[in-house]
Specification:
two-stranded parallel sheet, UDP-galactose 4-epimerase, domain 1, 2 domains, 41% helix, 335 residues, 15 strands, single chain, Rossmann fold, globular, 7-stranded parallel beta sheet, alpha/beta
Length: 335
């Protein structure tokens, strides 16, 4: 198959591109010069330029288009206009945060949708609806795929963090306390990008998946305290955890935890992946979170330039922890 992957050089997209490249003619559309010398064909250009996308499709006649960079309904509508009646399958990467987690813990594709806390999830849901409506009106061959949190060789599952992940790892290594939202007992599902891509490619060119929405996550479930204990084990460090309520964290003017925590990580989630397993019966995840953490630390050790400290985040954590401890001490006098 001739496959175009728009944004196929990122955290999720690149493992997908590599696996599809084994048996297909894959082209990656990216905004900058290729990061990798891998034999995959690259086109450099603006994936948000409708006329450019039309030209790319007309010149190449792709069978399948996978778009990882659609974030608002206007972009979704333009992709429908560009690719309708021209391809066999269009794959939209949505997000599991579209579901109403206020009312549901066990998540299936039929779970009620609507996330009042996250503008990101609200926009993704609007995109889903545009594609599904296009399917009804124009037989647009849409497949909607929803990941939960997906991590990789240079990312690891964390609760409260700064711009990157290393800032939290650095605090653990320096015996400084780290922050977890709530009491750390909410369950969480994190899927390694290599496992996600293995499930993803089984849905490409699969006629059973046209017109369907499918969640892809691991079946491995832990709470945040356990995840951080795995970090401590891998680092050979005792992790000093400070639990701070989500409603306090969302007051931050420096970091946006309303969307990432209040709209996502604060909830316990359990994904029922029966629909995925029906479409791809032989799919299973092979990378445990323990192994994923080990892979991350090995990669960071081999690439020390990625160990970026964040002094502002460090200072913010110290101040918030001090203030919160003061508050707890003052409350003990009342209680």
């Amino acid at each position: 198959m001739k496959i175009l992957i728009i944004g196929g050089d990122g955290n999720i997209g690149y493992p997908i591109s590599k696996k599809l490249h084994l048996n297909n003619e894959v082209t990656i559309l990216c905004k900058d010069e290729p990061k990798f010398d891998d034999g995959i064909r690259y086109i450099v250009g603006n994936g948000y330029d409708k006329e450019f996308l039309k030209d790319v499709q007309e010149k190449n006649s792709f069978d399948i288009v996978i778009n990882l960079i659609i974030f608002n309904p206007e972009q979704a509508a333009e992709n429908v206009e560009v690719f309708k009646n021209k391809i066999k399958q269009f794959v939209f990467i949505s997000t599991a945060t579209v579901f109403n987690h206020d009312k549901n813990v066990v998540i299936t594709e039929d779970t009620e949708k609507g996330n009042v806390h996250s503008w990101y999830a609200q926009n993704k849901l609007k995109c889903e609806n545009i594609f599904l409506e296009a399917k009804k009106e124009n037989q647009f061959p849409i497949t909607i795929i929803r990941p939960s949190q997906t991590y990789s060789k240079d990312k690891v599952p964390l609760s409260v963090k700064g711009k990157g992940c290393w800032s939290v790892i650095s605090r653990i290594l320096r015996d400084k306390p780290v922050i977890i939202h709530g009491d750390g007992t909410s369950t969480w599902v994190s899927t390694h990008s290599d496992d996600f891509s293995t499930g993803f490619v089984k849905l490409i060119g699969n006629e059973k998946c046209i017109g369907e929405d499918i969640d892809i996550t691991t079946d491995e479930i832990y709470n945040w305290n356990i995840i951080y204990s795995f970090l401590g084990e891998a680092l050979n460090k005792e992790v000093k955890i400070v639990h701070i309520p989500t409603d306090i964290l969302t007051l931050s003017k420096k970091y946006d935890y309303k969307m990432s925590i209040e709209g996502d990580k604060q909830y316990s989630v359990v994904f029922d992946n029966r629909k995925l397993k029906e479409a791809a019966p032989d799919f299973k995840c092979n990378i445990s979170i323990k192994e994923g953490i080990k892979k991350y630390l090995e990669y960071m050790e081999a690439n020390p330039s990625l160990k970026k400290e964040e002094p502002d985040f460090d200072e913010w954590c110290d101040k918030l922890i001090d203030k919160y401890n003061e508050f707890k001490n003052s409350v003990t006098d009342i209680i």
